[in-house]
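Supplementary Methods S3. Input chains for the assembly prediction are listed below.
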Amino acid sequence: MTKTIRAHTNIALIKYWGKADSQLRLPLMSSLSMTLDKFYTDTQITNSSTTNEFYLNGSKQTGNSAQRVFTYIKKLQAKFGVSGNLIVKSTNHVPTAAGLASSSSAFAALAGAFCEHYHIKVSQTELSRLARLGSGSASRSIFGGFAIWQKGTTDESSYAYALTEKPKMDLQLLAIELNQLPKDLPSTAGMQQAQTSPFFKPWLARNEAELNTMINAIKANDFSSLGQQAELNAMEMHAINLSANPGFTYFEPNTLRAIKLVQQLRNSGIECYCTIDAGPNVKVLCQLRNVKEITSRFMSEFQNVKIIHASFGTGISCLN
Ligand code: PMV
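Predicted structure tokens for the full assembly:
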């Protein structure tokens, strides 16, 4: 029976935004993420008697997304000395390309399904390294709870691990979907261009200290410190994009409105923080007691806004 592999997406609280090696996808900085329960990808792999095929949510893909999957499969086949054409079927329970890194769950599930298909036994660390070759953020989606991707300097030393898979913290995430259009600058191009900012190097120099602040916040179960550090790190990333040469931004007018609303809520005593990835949508970090109030404020300030409430997700799993 064909196995289905499920991987959840993750949101980086300390961002990965720059590659040291684009072939191996070695990052310039270490990153830390929260795995999310509401967003995930299910993937199955079977043999194909003709060519490689990739189906996403039931429809056959032909463009760049299919090529990326086939290139990745060939890379893994060469690595493990296996061959054959494959049919990859994925179901994405993530708003694709709308600012939540669907590639994190997609490539984690694909790496897991590949190993399952060829009966290749790997450790979680090795699986994280394999997922990394497909998409950097996917390295963290092997684990539940909070995961750290240590940057490393080689293929062997760059992988993620769980800081804690069952965190004690009351940490909720509200994904505010302001815009459903796919991002116009893919993350690989964005992170390359960001390096032209005069603030990129100083930001990189802060990585270890920011990561430690975040680890300490998690260990101390300190939501305020986690939220402050997450928001600061995200704003630094977007400030670097704006100050690149040429400058660019993923923000849309509604992104700024959402950031201001988070600031207003906070000033009025409703503690919340925001983080934003390579897209216009804002993710609000808060605690359970404030979910209702924050949701209703966003609903009344924005028209047609979709809000999904998520919390901690689990690591990669086999469903059958
Ligand atoms: O893994 P990629 O190539 O989709 O890049 C992810 C980049 C961010 O989502 C912006 C940050 C991160 O660490 O997930």
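The chain has a mean pLDDT of 95. Residues 12, 15-17, 31, 101, 103, 135-137, 187-188, 277-278 surround PMV (CB under 6 Å).
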